[in-house]
Design a protein that fits this description.
Elements lengths: L9 H7 L2 H16 L3 H17 L8 H29 L8 H29 L1
Helix pairs in contact: 2-3, 2-5, 3-4, 4-5
Length: about 130
């Protein structure tokens, strides 16, 4: 099960999921895929995985958060596989990614779903205020 901070820490997660922060992280990750610095890219993927895990509150209390929880959980779970595979690719472990082009596709998928996750959390936080 994905565990994260209690609902009162959602501002922490939102601060980390801003479009600028996500774009910067994904830009650095794309650079790691295309060149040297793969170890730094793998570390960045681990940080993204921890951030995605933190998006799912362990004890949502507000009705608005409870209503958004299935979509948030689904999006967070959907992100786990491509992030794990990107981490494996960057560390040189056996993975389903065979080349840079396929890694770029995985990264595009991650970008889209991180954006969706940020929108869901922002909606959930706004609805609970």
């Amino acid at each position: 099960m994905i565990n994260g901070p209690p609902p009162d820490e959602s501002a922490f997660v939102m601060a980390r999921l801003t479009p600028d922060t996500v774009d910067m992280a994904l830009h650095r990750l794309a650079a790691a895929i295309d060149g040297p610095g793969r170890a730094r890219g793998a570390t960045l993927v681990r940080h993204l995985r921890a951030l995605v895990d933190a998006c799912v509150a362990s004890r949502p209390h507000e009705a608005a958060r409870l209503a958004d929880l299935p979509a948030i959980l689904g999006t967070a779970a959907t992100l786990q596989y491509p992030l794990i595979e990107l981490e494996r690719y960057l560390t040189g472990d056996a993975c389903d990614i065979t080349d840079r082009d396929q890694a770029a596709l995985y990264l595009s998928f991650v970008r889209q779903h991180l954006w969706r996750l940020a929108q869901l959390i922002r909606h959930s936080v706004d609805a609970s205020v």
